[in-house]
Amino acid sequence: MRLTKLLLIVLAVFLIIWIDLPENLKIGGLVINPLSVDFNLLGLRIKKDFRTHLGLDLKGGSHLVFEADLTKIKKEDFQDALNSARDIIEKRVNFFGVAEPIIQTIKSQDKYRISVDLPGINDVNQAVSLIGKTAQLSFKEEIKIDDPYLATTTPLISRLTQDSGVSGKHIKKASLSFDSQTGKPQVALSFNEEGKRLFAQATKRNLQKPLAIWLDDILLSAPIVQTEINDGNAVITGNFTVNEAKKLAISINSGALPLPIKLIEQKNIGPTLGKSEVKRSVFAGVVGLLAVLLFMILYYGRLGFIANLTLIIYGLISFAIFRIIPVVLTLSGIAGFILSIGMAVDSNILIFERIREELRKGKDFEIAVQLGFGRAIDAIKDANITTLTVAFILFNPLNWEFLPQFGMVRGFALTLAIGVATSLFTGVVITKRLIKFFYKIP
Amino acid sequence: MVNFLKYKLVYFLISLTVIGIGLFSIFNWGYYYSIDFVGGTNLEYQAKKNIDQEKIKKILIREKVELNYLSINKKKILLRTKALDEKMIEGLKKRLEKDLGVSLTLLKSETVGPSISSENLKKTVIACFLAILGILIYMSFAFKGFNYALAAVLAMIHDFLVVLGSYSLISHFFRAEVDTLFITAVLTTMSFSVHDTIVIFDKIREYLQTEGQKDIEYFANKALTETMVRSLNNSMTIVFMLLALVLLGGSTIRFFAATLLIGTITGTYSSPFVATPILVWLERRKK
Question: ipTM of this model?
Fold first, then answer.
């Protein structure tokens, strides 16, 4: 029993340190990186790199806010339309090759907006033009090529460019469905009245020939037309997974929604500005931390040493949590973290003062420790729960519209909450164990 | 035991003076608001050689660009103008380059509409009221008495006013701007304030439970005597951290750290010298 407990602790410590390792650490020719996982668990792919995620202000990049023009959309479809637009932007940004973009929909009063954070991107104009393009879904048929040589050598994809007259604006809805015979996922399309007519003509024209479905410049699929379709319904089949089919349906839906967006805010931050700021702030943080450690040892002696040990453990655990979630670290987030280090010492000081108090009353050290912890717990609990309450409201986890939804306040609330919760654990549980260990109390 | 509460009039006067000066500053000088609040365009250029400030001003007047702020530091030009669109920013850069005869590198361009910020501000205020309500409910429940909660919240409002007022002074004399970081600092101060107060109230609660019915002032003094070292030590650790950030940290967070420093000091001060006297007064009135 004791052995398994010990093993578990060793494993936990090992994991935390592994997650906390700096990237590309070189030890004698060996390059060590923080833990990264990539495995299948019951069909679910779990892939995670435990790396530090730096926000825009530290890494540099762009912050863009678009306002959606919803004048042509029904009120009950606002949220759906906005979500589709968001997804389409995400897809495009992914094509653009941005690591970890943050794309959020923002609703405030009657305005619907989309914010796009692109860390590490400096060429904003290119990003803006890419994002701002409205997605266009189109159905295209094969071009008639008279030259028999060209007809056979031109790849199918470049022959499927003849406009069939049917486009995204003719689609009422695309949705995920399943083939009634094979049970395979597919995408069901339903056309509006005009689309129904045009689609019937197009299918009639292209019997036993492919009819390509394009989204902007990407060929989604090119099914062979089997029969003339005049009921205004069509399916896109293929070797889709449920997820892929769902995504395709979303893409088509967003393409079918001509939702113009307008750039209303743009921020450009050069990475060099971030770097020097970070360096200075980290240096300041280290100086501050050393001052705290020194103060604790000078004032509390051996107990202070224990508090410092707890503090280091606290730092390691919080940093691991930042990497696990992952928390995108910004300058204010780091400031919040540094501040929370100061606050984390509080639990220890509370406990130590209580222990001293009991010692002054002439109690044995062992009993004083027990009583000190017991008494301090009440104050620590109440004080931290109120702080957590505030952090909870500021973080706004349910995304309530009347509460702040902007990153800076949220980031700060998140680091504060993690800091407080972790310090509850390290300040009470770990300190107690360390005291028992160092003072050899059974 | 030290009779801290004997000097409550002194504490009251200190608080009144600090808040009074702060309010005077707010009403007289107000704040410089960052672009987050007023909306507009911030432009930062790096120039190859030194440039005369007046020349830039003249060009801007001729181009009918409304200028709010202009500074040149180490060949870095910092401009704040009324909101400009992308084309105008592009055009302005070309005009400046041509008329000044220098090539400029655009380091930073920020455009913010003021509407965004006023909404966020409103929401943050609502969040604050909700947080206060949450604190009131939780503390009334934890301390089995509304007076504890009320005293803690009043002390928190005291700290809020102190920070707000002092920042107006900093804003006036050092051109610190009210930005989102400032809001964050105010929020932190408010939660720290209550955190600190609870520790003292917890002591009073404990004495009431273990030593039975005696005068609340006696217990309050006893609690203050017992917790004073803890309060000072705890604040000292935070002050070390923040002082390091103010003196050595990057310029972006300097005012943020300074605000937090003021918040920590007033938060520490208000727990024994504002919240506790109020609690004693409230509890006495009950009888």
Answer: 0.72
